[in-house]
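Let us work through a complete example step by step.
Step 1: write down the sequence.
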Amino acid sequence: MDSTVIWKTINTIILVAVFYKLLKKPISNMLNNGVASVSNKYEAVQKEKEEALNLLKEAERKAKEAKKESEEIISHAEEVAQKQKEQIVKEAQEISTRIKAEADEVIEREVLKAKKELQKYATEKAVELAEKSLKDKVDEDFNKKIIKTSLSQIAKEGVL
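Step 2: predict the structure and record it as tokens.
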């Protein structure tokens, strides 16, 4: 072998030894730091994943609670609306009954009023017809005859 090859090999070995001696700690630290960094990042990502899952579970729980609460509110609102509807119907029926009773009273008063007016009218017409009938039947001879009969009856009774 050639002495240059040997010297090149020795130089290479010395150079590798110097590099090894000088760069061992920095490279080892760099690799350790890189592994630690990746490990830390992985752990951080795992923690964030767990936190996200916990937040998701919490959000789902809150959503269920909100849904349940909204259903309760809707149910309560429907009950209140039904009660109000029943109350309104009841009040409307009471008002209807009262209006009907008042209308019946008004009708009854009007019927009585109409009957009285009809009686008054019938009485007036009967008096008119009687007067007319009497006027037609009563004349001067009839009056004399009534006077004579009345006087003779009075005389019989002894009043005169």
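Step 3: interpret the result. The two ends are 205 Å apart (CA to CA).
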